[in-house]
């Protein structure tokens, strides 16, 4: 059917009390950003629900985007007709007939905000229910758990009919829980961690370390493409490139091999904390899962976390690999994450890294390096890019992809 608007219902926002307006405003902004490219529609974020006037835009494509925006409980495509009972009856029959199969049951549920309309809610239910029974052969009424609920809203600017409800992404609107910095590698785990953090309302900026010529342009493009996969949940995401070559070369030269990964991660944390301080970040997020690799044992975490007092949040810390992969497939990052472009966490990985590094030895080896100078020069080369929904950085038509063939 040619729908005219989409009615959006809020999830956890209903419990936010005096802060509810701020949450709704943020959700409205996120929805507008997510629907970038649909130039004709209008988003109206009211206190009880959101109305998206389509103005001719494709309702199916719009709903695909909406299904990924955090903070939405569910939504329904609707048709607006004038306050004319004959027009309402005609639309109701067409809407129910489109969904009817043999044995279908239905009921009518009317809400009326315009109390000047000629029929009250019960009268409207009776009028439309009887009309549908007479004009959709074989359909029956069922008041509890029917197959179709025809929802009718009588407002001052028209009557709105809907008969389908689709589930939203749930969670909280991104941006209502502060800003976090996600340490985004090219692997499976960190995009999942970013997704889970965003679902709880955190506005995430991606911090990606790259080490040319040891890491390729394809690896950098892959990280940006992973960021694109997360943009539907908010609309746009800031991608922060951190040059890391000099630091890794110095670590490789001056630090004993078993401690290469420990010292590398300590520098990454230092840099991420500095970037967070400059950009208003409140916490560092990463994709560490306890015991999965050498740098993710409790002993390693103690030795690495020593360099920062900023909260480090690990959304996937207690998940096993299969659980993480399931989420990665759900958010469509898995196939991209397994593309074989090495990131800077793997290029200098020692064959036998310390799984239980000592904190005192970590400090001792790191003291051989010009920590402040290395950090300062890396920060001077940071580049920030705003990633929009639908952009492409790594695809079959790009020169980067062609180099692989």
From TrEMBL:
SMART domains: THUMP (SM00981)
Protein name: Probable tRNA sulfurtransferase
Catalytic reaction equation(s): [ThiS sulfur-carrier protein]-C-terminal Gly-Gly-AMP + S-sulfanyl-L-cysteinyl-[cysteine desulfurase] + AH2 = [ThiS sulfur-carrier protein]-C-terminal-Gly-aminoethanethioate + L-cysteinyl-[cysteine desulfurase] + A + AMP + 2 H(+); [ThiI sulfur-carrier protein]-S-sulfanyl-L-cysteine + a uridine in tRNA + 2 reduced [2Fe-2S]-[ferredoxin] + ATP + H(+) = [ThiI sulfur-carrier protein]-L-cysteine + a 4-thiouridine in tRNA + 2 oxidized [2Fe-2S]-[ferredoxin] + AMP + diphosphate
Similarity annotation: Belongs to the ThiI family.
Coiled-coil region list: none
Keyword rRNA-binding on entry: no
EC number: 2.8.1.4
Native source organism of the sequence: Dellaglioa carnosa
Location(s), subcellular: Cytoplasm
Gene3D superfamilies associated with the record: 3.30.2130.30, HUPs
NCBIfam families recorded: tRNA uracil 4-sulfurtransferase ThiI (TIGR00342)
GO molecular function (one): tRNA-uracil-4 sulfurtransferase activity
Enzyme class: transferase
List of residues binding ATP: 183-184, 208-209, 265, 287, 296
InterPro entries membership: Rossmann-like_a/b/a_fold (IPR014729), ThiI_AANH (IPR020536), ThiI_fer (IPR054173), ThiI_N (IPR049961), THUMP_dom (IPR004114), THUMP_ThiI (IPR049962), tRNA_STrfase (IPR003720), tRNA_sulfurtransferase_ThiI (IPR050102)
Ranges for domain THUMP: 60-165
Source organism superkingdom: Bacteria
